[in-house]
Amino acid sequence: MTERAYRLVVGISMLGFLFFQLDYAMWILLGLMAIEGLTNWRIPILLSKARYPNDKIKVTDGENPQSTSNYEAEQMLRWIIFTLILLGSINYTEKSLWFFPWFTGLMLLLAGITGICPMVMALRKIGLK
Q1: What is the pTM of this model?
Q2: Which of 37, 10, 5, 34 is nearest to 101 (CA)?
Q3: CA 24: distance to chain centroid?
């Protein structure tokens, strides 16, 4: 599974959970993003290692040679998704920030379809690898 396919699956799942008001599923997705952001054990990499155990899998997708940090852009993307979902979920009862989870889901869906994620591009531009 590639990062592009993962973004597509997460975006579709998130929009489906929001549309059908599956709050528990959104909290599970929130926990998944927190674990991935904290540990950097990303599901696409884990699935690739499980599928091809003898291959030496190295993530080189869009590697930034001028990186000033050891923190990865994909890991930071997980934290940003976590934050936006959390803000939207906490304030969802007040209907004030309802658009954060919807916007995040839509942008992940579009990033999965097109293969272009503006947030990852911006994070790499500021120096994350």
Answers
A1: 0.83
A2: 10
A3: 18
